[in-house]
Amino acid sequence: MAVEIKPAGRRGNIARMATLREAGLIAIILALCIAMSFASPHFLTWGNLRAMMMSFSIEGIVVVGMTILLIVGGIDLSVGSVVCFSMVVSGALFLSGLDPWTASLIGIAASALIGAVMGFFVTVVGLNHFITSLAAMVIVRGMCLVVTKGTPLSLFTLPPEFKALGQGSFRDIPYVILIFVMVVAIFDFLLRRATAFRKVFYTGSNEKAAQYSGIKTSHVKFWVTVLCSTLAGLAGVIYMARFGAATPTFGAGMELNIIAAAVIGGASLNGGSGTIFGAILGMALLSVVTSSLILLDVSVYWQDMIKGCILLAAVSIDHFLHSRKF
To answer: Does 48 have pLDDT greater than 50?
Structure first.
């Protein structure tokens, strides 16, 4: 007989906490924007705002997958390498004579395959996400170096209609932002409304109870891992179209920004909680902080330290909130 999961009380507290966190993030972002408008006359210019939105929109696509993976109780340290791998595979196939659209689809499919391999080791072999993705990060980065022989691929011969994916705009709104908004809208809706995605929360909240209720938690974790890598592959293709190149070292350290954004936005490292909207706010906050530090001419070394401190603060808050009884 199936056991019914009744996490309503706890989920209700988590939902209220997430709403408060999102409201707090919006207030912090607005306060930073107001302060920077006085500190630098360039901050609120359309050029700077457009650059910020373009930057966090592409990374935001990866954040969506990472957030869902964190909710299910996993983590993926390989997303930066997978983004690079998608660029490299797609670029190499294009240079070998394949059209860029087909090459990009193969690059995304290859990224999904990496997620499937990680999902296999997690759900069948029994390894945890951290170790599996750490190994994948190193292996995939090595594959990028092997494919390119350590030399960046110049892709300036990409056709204009493909470059428009990363550089073009519709009525002065970049296609990158439109794609990002579409991805966020789709997965935010699915995460809130779809029955299949509700299993993600149940698995992350209490895997044993989810199994007793009839949920195949191994299937849930497997497909969420594949989804995270697939979205990273999509981001890689967009980066390739934007920059017209595929560099084997691209994306190194990207996982720090991605995980930090998701955790700042309310995704728990313990699983079971998080929202797409909150994670995007976390990404926006990091983007505003980065832009502010650049405009204030702060050394890049200090920028990394500040981002690390923000991540540590977010993880500490997450630990404090989830150590309490709901």
So the answer is: yes
Tell me the C-alpha distance between 165 and 155, whole Å: 14
Residue 220: alpha-carbon gap to chain centroid: 18
Provide Rg for the chain, Cα atoms: 20
Q: Is 86 in contact with 110 (CB distance < 8 Å)?
A: yes
CB 281 within 8 A of CB 22: yes
Q: Which token pair is 211?
A: 């199994």
Using DSSP, how many helices (H) and how many strands (E) does the chain show? 13, 4
d(CA 268, CA 240): 31
Q: Which residues lie below 8 Å from residue 278, measured CB to CB, with a gap of 6+?
A: 18, 21, 22, 25, 265, 266, 267
Instruction: With CA atoms as reference, report the closest residue to 221 among 212, 213, 211, 232.
Output: 211
Q: Please tell me the predicted confidence (pLDDT) of residue 323.
A: 63
What's the chain's length in residues? 326
265 — phi, psi (to 5°)? -80, -5
The one-character DSSP state at 121 is: I
DSSP-assigned letters across all residues of 155-204 = -TTS-HHHHHHHH-EETTEEHHHHHHHHHHHHHHHHHHH-HHHHHHHHHH
Residue 200 has pLDDT above 70, yes or no: yes
Six token digits for residue 67: 């957030």
Q: Confirm if 289 and 310 have CB atoms less than 8 A apart.
A: yes
- Which among 17, 72, 79 has a CA at the least distance from the CA of 197? 72
Q: Which residues pair with 154 in a beta bridge?
A: 245
325: confidence class by pLDDT, cuts 50, 70, 90? very low
